[in-house]
C-alpha cells in the first residue's frame, strides 16, 4: 500500500453526543447535540506509555479551517508522540444544537446555551470520553488555543486542572474585561504599529478622519466619497467608510506576518504617493495595497455576515463584553466605550442584556499576579506585542509555572501557526521556549506519576 | 445604652437579587430570586485595613440553624477582626426561586436550577457584591463549610481563587463519588466505631439483622416486630425496621460528641442487658438509649420529610450521586450500590436521570494528590476518623498548602462547631492548627499585597 496521499488522511472526524446544558437539570438541558471533533493518532505513543494528548480548543469559527492553522500541534506531535485532538466550539461549524442553525440562532431561548462555561464543560466531557475510550486516563493533556480560544485554554487549565495538565494560551486577552485593561489598549497598539513603520503614514492616517468628515459634510459629499473609494454600494454615512477603513487597519496590525505585513503595505503605498495626491487619495492607495485590486470595495461588512460574525455577535452581547474604544491618544478619532448604548443595542438585537461583569466574576482577571502567584500552574501566556490584543494579555510572568512569553515583533497567534521555512529567529525562539516548558511539565508529570 | 441583650443583635439579615441561571442566557435564566445572607460586622477591622472576611457557605438546610452552629466563625472573629458572612444555599430556607416553595419543587423544570455549580456561582456573586459595597476589594476571604458545605468550600477555592483566598473544608467527602472511595467506606467506619466500643455490642448488632428477618418471616412476624419496637404504625416490611435502625446507628457514629456519644449509649445499653434478654430486646434497649423514651418510634422517616430531606433527595438524584453501600465486611447485611436501580428510582421520582459522573468531571477527585500537588493552594481538609464520611475525605496532605488535618477521635464537622469549656485536648489542638494555618495565609497575603 502506498502512503496516504493526503496530509489529511490521518485526521478522523468524530461526533460526540453532547449535553445541551451542563449546569442545569431541567428536562430540556438533557437534550444532546452532535459536537464535532477530529483526531490524528498517527504520531501517538499510545496509552501504554501514557503518551500525551494535545487538544486544540476550537474558538469562534468552524473547525475545518482551524486544524490546518493550528501548526503547533502538528509540528510538535512527532517530538512528543502526541495524540492530536481538535474540538469544535458549540454553535459553530457542524456543532450546532437544535434541529438547524436557523433554529439555534432564532432567539435568546435557543441561543442561551451558547456560553463560554458551557463550551469549556463540553471540552471537559469530550476529553474525558476520549481518554476513557482509549484507556488513556494517565496520558497528560495539553490544551492549546489562540485569541478567544486562548482564553478558553487558560480558563480550562484553571477550572479543570484534573483534565488538562497545562495550557498554551496564545494571544489571549483575558484582561480585556471590566476595564482591567485601558479601553484604548487595542487602538494604541494599532497606532504604535503604524507610527513605528512611518511617522508620515501615521500622520496621514490620523488626519484622514476629519478629511472624510469634511468631504462628507459637503453637498454630494457621500457620493464623492463612494466614488473615490469605489464602494460597491453608495455609502449612507461617513461612519460607514471610517469603520471600514478602521477594520482594515486593525486587521493589518493584528495579523502582521513576518513574511510581509499589511502595515508595511499600507504605509509604503501612502508614503510612495506623489506630494500632489490629496489625503484621501493616499488613503485609498493604502487600502488597495492592503486589500487588493477589486472592481469595488464592500464597505458594509455586515451585508454578508460570516458564521463567525454571527456567533461572535451573540457572544459579545451575552458575556464577552470587551470595552474596546479609540481613546483620546491614538491615530483614530476619539471615542469611548458606551456600555449603556452597547447594552441597549444587544437588548434590541437579542431581547436579553449582556452580563458585562460575569467573565471577571467567573474567571477573575483583577490583580491577576496577586491572585495566581500562589495558585495554579502550567499556563503559558504567549503574545506578540505588535498584536493589538496583546494589550489585554498577560505580559508579565505570574509565577515560575505561569510564564508570559512575548516577542516584540510578533502578531496575533503567530506562535501556534504552522512553522515555515523563513520564520524569523525570534519566532523560532519563542516556539522553542514553549516546547521546552511543556517538555518540563511532562518530565515533572511522569516523575510524579511514577512516584504516585 | 446597655450592651445588646441578645447574642443575635449583631447579625443582620440581607437579601440579594440572585440570578436564576449563571451559565445560560435564555430569558428565563435572567429571572432573579431573593437569596438570604446574614452579616455580623461587630468584630470587623474594616476595609481600610483590608481586614478579613469569613464566609460560611450554607449547605442542605435553612440558614437559621447553621449560624449558631458555625462556631469556627464566631469564635475566631475577634482574633482576626473578621467580618462574618453566612449565605443560604439556593432552594433552602428563605432562598427559594420561583413564587413559592411548592412551585420550585413541583417538577424538574423548576428544580433544574438546583445544582452545586449554580450554588457556588451564587456565593461568588454575593461575596463580590458585599466586597464592592463595603469597598473591601482587598479584604481576604476565607470560605468555611462542613459536610456538603465543606465540599462547596473546597470546590469554591478551586474554582474561584480570585474570590476566596482559602477554604476550611470540614468533613467534606469530596472523594465519595464515582467509586474513588470503596462503596463500603462509610459503613466500615460505622462498624469500626461500634466494634472499638465493644466487641459484644458489635456482634449483637451484626447478628440482629438476620434475627429480624427470621421473625419477620414468621406468621404475624411484622406485627410482632412492630410491637417489640413500639413502632408508631405497623411496619410493612422487615426492611423498614432495618433501615430505621441502620440510620440510628449511622447517626450515632457520625455525630459522636466528645461529651457523650450515641455509640457508647447504644453499646452500654446493649452490653448492660441481662443475658436472658433476646437479641431484639437488646437492640430495642440500644435504640431507646440513643433515641430517648418515646411512646412510639416513627420508623418511616419519609412520613414527614424535612426540608433537608426533600432538597437533598433532589440533589442526590441530579448530581450528588454518592455510591454508599454496606459492602461485604461490615456489621450490616451485605448490599451493594445498584446504580441502575438508583437511576430508575430518580427517573420515576423526578422525570430526569442523575448524572452520576458529573461531579468528578466538574470538580475532579481521581488521583487527587497527583493532580493537585502542583496546582492550587490554601484548602484545609479537616476530618475526624470516627465520622463515617471521613472515608471519602482527604486524609493525606496533598501539598504543603493543601493540608489534611484529622483527629482519630473526632466526628462529623466537630472542628467548626462552637468551642465548649470541656472540649478535649485533641479537638482544641486541631482547631488551633487550623487557626495557625489560616493566620499564615493572611500573613503571606498581606505581604504579597504590600509588594503588589
Automatic annotation (TrEMBL), chains A, B:
GO MF, one example: serine-type exopeptidase activity
Keywords noted in UniProt: Glycoprotein, Hydrolase, Protease, Signal
Segments traversing the membrane: none
Example GO biological process: proteolysis
Domain of life: Eukaryota
Pfam family, any one: Peptidase_S28
InterPro entries: AB_hydrolase_fold, Peptidase_S28, Ser_carbopepase_S28_SKS
Similarity remark: Belongs to the peptidase S28 family.
Protein name: Lysosomal Pro-X carboxypeptidase-like
Amino acid at each position: 500500500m502506498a502512503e496516504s496521499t493526503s496530509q489529511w488522511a490521518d485526521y478522523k472526524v468524530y461526533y460526540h453526543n453532547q449535553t445541551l446544558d451542563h449546569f442545569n437539570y431541567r428536562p430540556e438541558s438533557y437534550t444532546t447535540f452532535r459536537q464535532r471533533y477530529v483526531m490524528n493518532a498517527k504520531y501517538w505513543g499510545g496509552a501504554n506509555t501514557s503518551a500525551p494528548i494535545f487538544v486544540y480548543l476550537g474558538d469562534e469559527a468552524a473547525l475545518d479551517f482551524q486544524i490546518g492553522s493550528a501548526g503547533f500541534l502538528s509540528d510538535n506531535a512527532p517530538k512528543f508522540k502526541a495524540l492530536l485532538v481538535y474540538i469544535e466550539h458549540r454553535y459553530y461549524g457542524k456543532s450546532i444544537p437544535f434541529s438547524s442553525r436557523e433554529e439555534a440562532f432564532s432567539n435568546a431561548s435557543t441561543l442561551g446555551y451558547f456560553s463560554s462555561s458551557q463550551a469549556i464543560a463540553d471540552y471537559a466531557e469530550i476529553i474525558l470520553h476520549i481518554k476513557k475510550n482509549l484507556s488513556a486516563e494517565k496520558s497528560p493533556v495539553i490544551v492549546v488555543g489562540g485569541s478567544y480560544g486562548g482564553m478558553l485554554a487558560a480558563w480550562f487549565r484553571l477550572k479543570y486542572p484534573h483534565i488538562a495538565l497545562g495550557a498554551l494560551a496564545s494571544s489571549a486577552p483575558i484582561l480585556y474585561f471590566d476595564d482591567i485593561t485601558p479601553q484604548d489598549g487595542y487602538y494604541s497598539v494599532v497606532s504604535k504599529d503604524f507610527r513605528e513603520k512611518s511617522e508620515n503614514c501615521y500622520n496621514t492616517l490620523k488626519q484622514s478622519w476629519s478629511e472624510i468628515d469634511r468631504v462628507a459634510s459637503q453637498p454630494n459629499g457621500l457620493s464623492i466619497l463612494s466614488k473615490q473609494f469605489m464602494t460597491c454600494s453608495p455609502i449612507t454615512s461617513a461612519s460607514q467608510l471610517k469603520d471600514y477603513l478602521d477594520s482594515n487597519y486593525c486587521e493589518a496590525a493584528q495579523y502582521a506576518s513576518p513574511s510581509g505585513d499589511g502595515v508595511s503595505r499600507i504605509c509604503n503605498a501612502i508614503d510612495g504617493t506623489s506630494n500632489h495626491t490629496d489625503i484621501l487619495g493616499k488613503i485609498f492607495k493604502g487600502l488597495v495595497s492592503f486589500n487588493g485590486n477589486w472592481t469595488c470595495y464592500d464597505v458594509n461588512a455586515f451585508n454578508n455576515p460570516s458564521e463567525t460574525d454571527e456567533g461572535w455577535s451573540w457572544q459579545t452581547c451575552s458575556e464577552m463584553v470587551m470595552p474596546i474604544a479609540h481613546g483620546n491618544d491614538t491615530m483614530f478619532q476619539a471615542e469611548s466605550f458606551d456600555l449603556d448604548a452597547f447594552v441597549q443595542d444587544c437588548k434590541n438585537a437579542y431581547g436579553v442584556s449582556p452580563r458585562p461583569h460575569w467573565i471577571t466574576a467567573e474567571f477573575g482577571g483583577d490583580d491577576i499576579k496577586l491572585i495566581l502567584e500562589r495558585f495554579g500552574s502550567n499556563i503559558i501566556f504567549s503574545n506578540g506585542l505588535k498584536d493589538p490584543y496583546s494589550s489585554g494579555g498577560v505580559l508579565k510572568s505570574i509565577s515560575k509555572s505561569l510564564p508570559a512569553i512575548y516577542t516584540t515583533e510578533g502578531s496575533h497567534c503567530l506562535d501556534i501557526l504552522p512553522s515555515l521555512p523563513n520564520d524569523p529567529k525570534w519566532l523560532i525562539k519563542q516556539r522553542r521556549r514553549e516546547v521546552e516548558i511543556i517538555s518540563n511539565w511532562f518530565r515533572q508529570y511522569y516523575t510524579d506519576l511514577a512516584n504516585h
